[in-house]
Amino acid sequence: MCVITGICMNVWIAGCSDFYRKDFIHITSAYEDSKEKRAFKEREIQAMRKSQILIHNHTRVVMIVRYMNEVDDTFGGSDNKEVFFVELYDKLGQVKLKDLQFSLKNIYKSIKPSNVSKLSTADMEFLKPDVIYNDMYKVVFESIGARGKDMLQFNVEIAGVGNMSVDFSYAKAKSNLTK
C-alpha cells in the first residue's frame, strides 16, 4: 500500500509498506480462526521467549524461541525429545546454520542437539514465523529428563557475533484461555 501526502504547497512525501499483507505478520485476533487454532496460538505465545544481541546500542541479532513441548506434548514424540522452534533475525543477513551452536541446560547437565534443520515457510504448515523475513530452525534435543526441568535454559552461540540465552525455568500457570 502506498500513500502520498501533501505538506505545504511544494513538498510531497511518499512511502510504501507491506504491513497489510496477510502473510507479513501473523496476528491471531486478526483472523477468524477456530477456537482450537486460537488456543494453540495462545499456548505458543506463552511458550515463547526472546533474546537479542546489541552492538553499539543497535540490534544485531534477534532470536525468538518457542518450546514446543509446552505448546503440545505430541511434539516430543514417544521419545520425549525436547523440541524448539527458533526464529532468527540477523540485521546483516550473514548468520548461517553452520554459525549456530545450540545447547540446552538445567542445573544438572548440558546437552547438545540431536538434530538442527532450517525450515522453509512450506515446512511450517500451521506454525508461521512472527515475521516472514526471519529464518526458522527446528532444534531437537534428546530428553533432558524430569529432574531439573524447572531450571531449563536454551542457549545459542553465534560464531563471530556473540551468545544468547533464554530462560524457561519459571513456573507456568495453566491458563483458561487455552481450554
Can you walk me through this structure?
The protein has helices spanning 35-46, 68-71, and strands at 2-7, 11-16, 48-55, 58-67, 82-90, 100-105, 110-111, 115-119, 135-141, 153-158, 162-167. The protein is globular, with a radius of gyration of 19 Å. It has two helices and eleven strands, in the order E-E-H-E-E-H-E-E-E-E-E-E-E. 9% of the residues lie in helices and 40% in strands. The chain has 179 residues and is mainly beta.
Descriptive labels:
179 residues; mainly beta; five-stranded antiparallel sheet; four-stranded antiparallel sheet; 2 helices
Terminus-to-terminus distance: 38 Å
Mean pLDDT: 78
Which strand order does the major sheet show? 3-4-5-9-8
Radius of gyration from the alpha-carbon trace, in angstroms: 19 Å
| Distinct helical segment count | 2
Helix % is under 10%
Shape: globular
- β-sheet strand percentage: 35-45%
Query: How would you characterize the largest beta sheet?
Result: 5 strands, antiparallel
**Count of individual beta strands:** 11
Going by helix content, strand content and strand pairing, the class is: mainly beta
Low-confidence stretches: 19-25
In short:
The chain has 179 residues and is mostly beta strands. It is 9% helix and 40% strand.
SSE layout:
Elements: E1 2-7, E2 11-16, H1 35-46, E3 48-55, E4 58-67, H2 68-71, E5 82-90, E6 100-105, E7 110-111, E8 115-119, E9 135-141, E10 153-158, E11 162-167
Antiparallel strand pairs: 1-2, 3-4, 4-5, 5-9, 6-7, 6-10, 8-9, 10-11
